[in-house]
Each structure stands twice: as structure tokens, then as C-alpha cells.
Amino acid sequence: QQQVKQSPQSLIVQKGGISIINCAYENTAFDYFPWYQQFPGKGPALLIAIRPDVSEKKEGRFTISFNKSAKQFSLHIMDSQPGDSATYFCAAVDSNYQLIWGAGTKLIIKP
Amino acid sequence: NAGVTQTPKFQVLKTGQSMTLQCAQDMNHEYMSWYRQDPGMGLRLIHYSVGAGITDQGEVPNGYNVSRSTTEDFPLRLLSAAPSQTSVYFCASSYDSSGMADTQYFGPGTRLTVL
User: Fold this and answer.
1) In this complex, do A98 and B43 lie within 8 Å of one another by their Cβ atoms?
2) CB neighbours of B114 closer than 8 A, spacing ≥ 6?
3) Contacts for A96 with CB less than 8 Å, ≥ 6 apart
4) Which of B58, B4, B38, B109 is closest to A43 using CA atoms?
5) B97 interfaces chain A, CB cutoff of 8 Å
6) Which residues in chain B touch residue A4, judged by CB atoms under 8 angstroms apart?
7) Which one-letter DSSP state was computed for residue A106?
8) CA–CA separation, A15 vs A91, rounded Å?
9) Which residue in chain A has the smallest CA separation from B91?
10) What would the pLDDT profile of B27-70 be if each residue is shown by its tens digit?
């Protein structure tokens, strides 16, 4: 049972466009929602994270939007660049502080 | 700081062989964990440790053992390798378990193939 559902599985965006990746969860006990970025041959690295008492968090070109009532959150990458091409994972932290991961989205930014 | 290091980077095993994946961190982190990453499934937690001498099972612990004799090292042992254990394995660490979500650092991974 996948507790965090992530879509799409893959995404191709033109340079300068907006990349949007969506995640949904069921467990209302989740209380922290990080996004990780992973380049080929590397481990994941924390990109940005949000707590459920906030509806939006922005860091540079990266924004998390959070809808607590719908149990959904999304990552927006503005002005997408070829260097943003990577696999992105959403995750949620449960009451035991364990990370529950989405399946990942492979993002390709076309120049 | 070297951060989180893992060895080897690649490994091929035959079914039934055993081996140990090494993980070390030089950040004095209390919390360390092992994940496996399979296509289309994200990362799944195998085992974790909240400090030296303390380990616990994650989501997919079967076929793996861990120990934590020092703060720095957290080896993962495959007891009798099976093709289902073909995966990429990541070790991660964080300052403590309560902060693990926002301070977790990952190693570069070990790509394991079991024939």
C-alpha cells in the first residue's frame, strides 16, 4: 500500500516553463512534507519542505503548495532550467519520524 | 567533512553469497539508516539506528542484518543474497531522529546485482 502517491511518473518541460509535480497522502498523522532531488548516480538531497500549518513555501524558483483538507501537496519549479533535470521525490514523515516516500518523478527540461 | 560514504559503489553477487555494505559518516550524527531504491517504488527503509548499540527494523528488513558498534559506522549485511535484493542501496544519517526529516544526508549509493 503506497501511503504517498506521486504523479506524474515522468515529465518533460521546455526551458523556461513551469514544472508541476503532485503528491497525495491518506494518513492525517503525517506532519512534515519534504521534497528530495536526485541526480543520476547520486543520493537524494533535501530540496524544500513544508509543515501542514502552512499553505505555501517558496525558496527561489521552487515552491511547495499544500492543501491540508484535500491531503495534497505539490512542487512547482518556475523558469525550469536544464540543470533541474533530475528525479524528484515527495515524502511524508510519520509519527515515528520515518520518511514515507513517493515513487518519484523523472523530470526532463528540454533546452 | 567527507559526509556519508559508502563502499563499494558496485557489486555483483551470486545467489546465496553473503556480503557487507559499508557506511560511514563523519558528522557525529546519531541517526543512521539504510534504504533500498527500486524503479517505480521510491525508497524503502530497511533498518535504522538511533545511536550506537541501538538498531531497529524498517519497512523491508527481511534478509538483512545491521549493527551499530560506533557512532560513525553502520554496516548492512546480506545474509544469503537473492535476486530480489538486486537494488540500489543508500545509507543516510541525520543529527537525531526527531530532526531526521530536515537534516538527513544521503551517501552516493551502492548498486547491487544478484545473479
Assistant:
1) no
2) B12, B13, B14, B15, B81, B82, B83, B84, B85, B86
3) none
4) B109
5) yes
6) 42
7) E
8) 26
9) A43
10) 999 999 999 999 877 899 999 998 999 999 998 999 999 999 99
CB-nearest to A32 from B48, B92, B101 is B101
Q: Are B112 and B89 in contact (CB under 8 A)?
A: yes
CA within 13 Å, CB half, B63: 15
Cβ contact A101–B42 (<8 Å): yes
Q: What is the pLDDT of residues B63-107, one digit of tens each?
A: 999 999 999 999 999 999 999 999 999 999 988 666 555 568 899
Contact A73/B at CB under 8 A = no
DSSP secondary-structure letter at A60?
A: T
Q: Are B58 and A34 within 8 A, CB to CB?
A: no
Name every chain B residue with its beta carbon within 8 A of the beta carbon of A102: 42
